[in-house]
Amino acid sequence: MIRIRRYLAVLALAGCAVEPTFDTAGIDVSLTPQQAAAGDEAFLGVSVIWGGVIIDSTNRQDTTQLEVLAYPLNANQKPDTAKSPLGRFLAQKAGYLETTDYAQGRAVTVSGPLEGTRTGRIGEIEYTYPLLAIDKIHLWPQRRSTSEPRFHFGIGVIFEN
Length: 161
What we know:
With 161 residues, this protein is mostly beta strands. The chain has one domain (22-139): CATH 2.40.50.140. It has helices at 2-15, 33-39; strands spanning 47-59, 63-71, 88-94, 107-122, 125-133, 136-139. Strands 1-2-3-5-4 form a five-stranded mixed β-barrel. The longest helix is centred in the N-terminal third of the chain and has 14 residues, at 2-15. The protein is globular. It starts with a helix and ends in a 22-residue tail after the last strand.
């Protein structure tokens, strides 16, 4: 009986495990998107880990581009949206990502080298985005609605003709 309880406790804890923890060796964890945009070509090739909330995702000829509103990362490298945003960045992944999965409002963490900057528009304002080439990407699970119960109990009934 004790073994079963221990086994169930381990399974419960494993179910609560949080991903990811990207390897930070050789990565500048202090550089923010605002700093990279202001430094223009000075940060070309520097590898970073950034995360935030997806504003837009677009499939292009050979890549998928994500526009992300950056937030500081917590200890698990998840964007902490309770803190102030750090600016916007563009992240490009070679190949195809399903834009319905990488949709507006989803939290994402990415790592890879900076490839310079791109100019775009936010409304009527011109904006300089740092451009990151995605080596690794983690799409965080969507939050559950707090108004819905987390557990459902009921009795199932099957009717057949």
